[in-house]
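BACKBONE GEOMETRY TOKENS
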Amino acid sequence: MEFLVRQENRMPALPADEAARIKAAEREYARQLRDRGILRRLWRVPGTRTAIGWYEAEDPTVLHEVLSGLPTFQWQVITVEALATHPQEQAPPPEPDLPPGTSA
């Protein structure tokens, strides 16, 4: 299943070394999710502390486990939307096999 995930980061001001450690752990976790094919894309919303991600997970429970593993999870306000393929995005039906010299 595909999901659109909006994550608003509300991490409080922390000592610089602690904040740097958490941010590095977050980047590493995101890399692991990309390597596993779970995090497909990630965008920032300019001028905010919000990110929008396109995730792919077996089901909502698996996605919850993934998101709750984020090092910043305790400070995130997260909304999730399950995605379904729009009919306009579905592949067109295959062309029929016609004998040479004929047309559809």
